[in-house]
Design goal:
- 75% of the residues lie in helices and 0% in strands.
- With 294 residues, it is mainly α.
- It has one domain.
- Helix 3 packs across helix 8 and helix 6 packs antiparallel against helix 12.
- The N and C termini lie far apart (37 Å).
Length: 294
């Protein structure tokens, strides 16, 4: 196995374990507080790496409005929504549902990018993805009063996935033409998200996480340093070495990892329907990403 393959797998595992870390952190502080601290802890290594590469420039400030938009779409909305989703769902189920991100990206691209229309094959992929999400969330129980959390959590995960998808389309339309360094963009958007979240996050009670070592480690090391800082650096490193299309295939790994880690480490239940649902989501993603125009 070569270095690129190792980096690819490491990134997939990091992103897949994020959901268990979210579950641990949100037991102590609110979803907004988790998102703010994650962005803050994650921004530090990214900015340090960007400085070491001399990737940041004052001239980039003229594009601050684009960085703000990316901060909201690609970090604030997903981070808050995903933590809220894991508050209501098992971490493995939340991670499996997040596998729909590339599928939503394909749909968003078809809606907002004229050259990327929705083909019959991509439409089938969308349908399969929705069926997979229904299986993972156990949609047959959504009409029971006891399962309102499952519905709420699923909607939060879909909202967060839509944020990522919208961010990718926005980046393609407005950021790519700027020819910015990818690591610089990562630094600007994570720092911007940390600042924005600092303004809207209630700080009362946030210090409680310091008294729970497991939650603090999950937040600072798991979500912040690994899940955001190092993950961003690895992702853009893979893009540089393998190209954006190959790098995007990493999204196939986290749903499977999330289910496995949730079951083995988090001692969560793992049903056959969740495994089948995850497989159907990934099949839908494959069809949507590889569908040629009809």
């Amino acid at each position: 196995m070569n270095v690129d393959s190792i980096l690819f797998l490491v990134l997939g595992v990091i992103w897949g374990t994020n959901f268990l870390f979210m579950k641990e952190a949100v037991q102590v502080i609110s979803p907004l507080q988790v998102a703010w601290l994650r962005a803050s802890f994650g921004a530090v290594p990214i900015l340090l790496f960007a400085f070491s590469r001399r990737s940041l420039a004052k001239a980039d400030l003229r594009n601050a409005h684009h960085f703000a938009a990316m901060s909201i779409l690609s970090i604030v909305v997903p981070y808050v929504s995903f933590v809220k989703g894991t508050q209501y769902l098992q971490s493995g189920a939340a991670g499996a549902i997040s596998g729909i991100i590339p599928l939503m990206t394909a749909v968003a691209a078809a809606l907002f990018l004229p050259k990327d229309r929705l083909s019959a094959r991509k439409g089938l992929g969308l349908l399969l993805g929705l069926v997979g999400v229904a299986w993972v969330a156990d949609v047959t129980r959504l009409f029971e009063a006891s399962s309102s959390n499952a519905l709420h959590g699923t909607l939060c995960m879909l909202l967060g996935s839509a944020g990522y998808a919208s961010g990718m389309v926005y980046a393609y339309k407005f950021i790519t033409p700027l020819k910015l360094s990818p690591i610089a963009l990562a630094g600007y958007q994570t720092a911007g998200a940390a600042l924005l979240l600092a303004f809207i996050t209630p700080m009362k009670g946030v210090e409680a996480v310091a008294s729970v070592p497991a939650s603090l480690a999950a937040l600072a090391l798991g979500l912040g340093l690994l899940g955001t800082g190092i993950a961003f650096i690895l992702y853009y490193r893979i893009i540089e070495r393998l190209g954006a299309i190959t790098a995007s295939s990493v999204f196939y790994i986290p749903p499977v990892v999330a289910l496995a880690v949730g079951a083995l480490v988090g001692k969560e239940g793992l049903s056959l329907s969740q495994c089948l649902g995850t497989a159907v989501i990934l099949l839908g993603v494959f069809l949507a990403r590889n569908g040629a125009p009809a």
